[in-house]
Every structure is written in structure tokens, then in C-alpha cells.
Specification:
Blueprint lengths: L2 H37 L4 H40 L5 H34 L7 H37 L4 H17 L9 H19 L10
Helix pairs in contact: 1-2, 1-6, 2-3, 2-4, 3-4, 4-5, 5-6
């Protein structure tokens, strides 16, 4: 196979791989959020009864987290491969760094929630200390809805700038990403469901890339030095 043929095959595969990885990340993350939001106790007074009913569901949601993280890392990797030398070094650093920080804090929050379930499973007959429960739940919430989502917003902004500059996707996704990121920055600490904005945006972006890929290969314009 010639070098030109190899490059053509790579350009055809890469956007489809990014789209599939992004869609998988979105579906898994939305599922994790829904399972935890509907199953994890919100008040110390009902924590014991809720964990008795929902420990298996919560454990399953935590089990899905690493797969969601791997899909997101794959999504980042194939997007960077797609952009290649068109990628701006400044925005590449922000794009890559914010994505890694999001995954790190996502995993940390999931580990904290999983620790509650493990601790409960070892001594299911003992009552849960209210102060300890409030502290642990607040820690997990702050990691996810404050810090991790802020990094997700930075990821969306940097990705939107790259989209606008390279035309790697329709510009409406760049505008939608910027507006959604600003919403996350303002509302993530007060609205639990603000977490869903990020995976929904990734889902829209990935679906658009997949649709464009099936329409036919498109060359990204080279940026002037």
C-alpha cells in the first residue's frame, strides 16, 4: 500500500473513531449520572435505607466510570490526530490539560462514592455517622460539580476555538460549546443536572462528525503560519 493510500485511510478512519469514542463516552457518562442521581442518598437520615436498596446500582455505576474515562481519552487522542499540524500549540495545551484534569477529578469523585459503598458493605448493620456522610458527599459533589465541571468548561471553550479556526466541525457547535461552557461556569455549583450539559455537547459534536464522515471525506484547511 502506498503512503498516499495509507494517509487517505487514516483520514477516513480517524473522525469516525473520534465520533464513536465521543458517543460512547456520552452514553456511559449520562448513564452513570442518572444511576447515581437516582440511587445515591442525599440526606444522612435516609442514607442507611437507601444504601440497603441501591448498593448494587451504585456499584454498577462506579464500575462504568473507567470505561467512560477511557472512551474520553480515546476521543481526545483521535481528535488531536485528526487536527495534526493544524493544531495550535497554545490551545492544544489547554485542550489536552483540561481533558486530563477532568478525567482525574471524575475518577476521584467516583472513588469517593465507591468508598462509601465498600465501607457500608463491610458493616451493613452499623449506622452511618451523619457528619462523616455529609463530609464525604460534599467532597464528591465539589470534586465533580465544581472542579471537574470547570475543567470540562475549559475543554469545551478550547475545543470550540479549535473548531472555529480549523472548521473541523460546523461552527454552530463552536458557538453552542462556548455558550454551554459559560452556563457550566456559572451554574454548576447550584444545579446538579448542569453536569449533563458536557456529555450532551460531546454527543452532539460526535454525532455531527459521524454524519459528516458518512457523507464523504473532507479536507481541513491548513492554517497560515
Amino acid at each position: 500500500m502506498s503512503n498516499d493510500a495509507k494517509l487517505t485511510n487514516t483520514s477516513l478512519r480517524t473522525p469516525k473513531a473520534a465520533a464513536v469514542a465521543g458517543i460512547l463516552f456520552s452514553i456511559l457518562t449520562i448513564t452513570i449520572f442518572w444511576l447515581l442521581r437516582s440511587s445515591f442518598p442525599t440526606h444522612p437520615s435516609s442514607a442507611l435505607a437507601t444504601l440497603n436498596r441501591s448498593a448494587t446500582t451504585i456499584a454498577f455505576a462506579i464500575y462504568l466510570v473507567p470505561f467512560s474515562g477511557v472512551a474520553f481519552l480515546w476521543f481526545i487522542g483521535v481528535l488531536r490526530d485528526r487536527l495534526g499540524r493544524r493544531e495550535d500549540q497554545f490551545f492544544a495545551t489547554v485542550f489536552f490539560g483540561s481533558g486530563l484534569l477532568f478525567i482525574a477529578m471524575f475518577f476521584s469523585a467516583a472513588a469517593i462514592v465507591g468508598s462509601i459503598v465498600v465501607a457500608f458493605a463491610t458493616k451493613p448493620d452499623q449506622s452511618i455517622n451523619p457528619e462523616t456522610f455529609v463530609f464525604v458527599r460534599s467532597l464528591a459533589f465539589n470534586l465533580m460539580n465544581v472542579f471537574a465541571l470547570k475543567m470540562a468548561a475549559v475543554f469545551m471553550i478550547s475545543t470550540s476555538v479549535v473548531i472555529a479556526r480549523t472548521r473541523a466541525a460546523p461552527r454552530y457547535l463552536a458557538y453552542l460549546g462556548a455558550v454551554s461552557a459559560l452556563f457550566i461556569l456559572v451554574a454548576s455549583q447550584s444545579l446538579d443536572w448542569a453536569f449533563l450539559v458536557f456529555p450532551i455537547w460531546v454527543l452532539l459534536f460526535s454525532t455531527q462528525v459521524l454524519v459528516d464522515n458518512f457523507r464523504g471525506p473532507a479536507e481541513l484547511p491548513l492554517r497560515s503560519p
